[in-house]
Amino acid sequence: MGSADDWTYDDALILISLPTRGWTSVRGMLSTADHHNHGVPNQEVLAEVVARLVASGLVGTRDRQLGATAKGRALQEGTKASGGYDLIVEVLDRLEAIPRHEGPPIVSPESLEKSSRHYGDPSWRRLWRRIT
Question: What is the tens place of the pLDDT at every residue in 82-99?
Fold first, then answer.
């Protein structure tokens, strides 16, 4: 069992959901997280994860977008896994060498709500709404 200072699965998931080159919106990040994990963290966890990754120097922000820093890219590049669970676990193992810092909220609650509304809804509900 890990301590409160350990990196989490969600930390690794969100880090690999950011582009190694360029920037993405919160919605783009959630789309990629959903692709890798077939689910996304809830809004509270997501806010904590993004704040922690920024405070730890792994993620940067620009014009309401997020992107991996050089330090964050180094953890993602050269991985053996191509995606999904194996990639998340490989990056989580690499995170252990990086000091973890907590930080203030980076993404507004409104942005999280708007962006995660689509991804927090079970797929069958989205599909059902489309066909009814």
Answer: 889 999 999 999 999 999
CA–CA distance, 110 with 107 (Å, rounded to integer)? 8
Q: Which residues of 115-125 are buried (b: 16+ CB within 10 A; e: fewer)?
A: bbeebbeeeee
Name the 3-class secondary structure at 68: strand
Output the CATH code of domain 9-131. Answer: 1.10.10
Return the domain boundaries, the chain: 9-131
What is the DSSP secondary-structure string of 3-41? -TTS--HHHHHHHHTS-SSS-B-HHHHHHHHHHHHSS--
Helix (H, G, I), strand (E, B) or coil at 94: helix
| In 17-122, alpha helices (H) | 26-37, 43-55, 70-76, 84-95, 109-120
100-115 mean pLDDT: 83
Token duo for residue 80: 């053996």
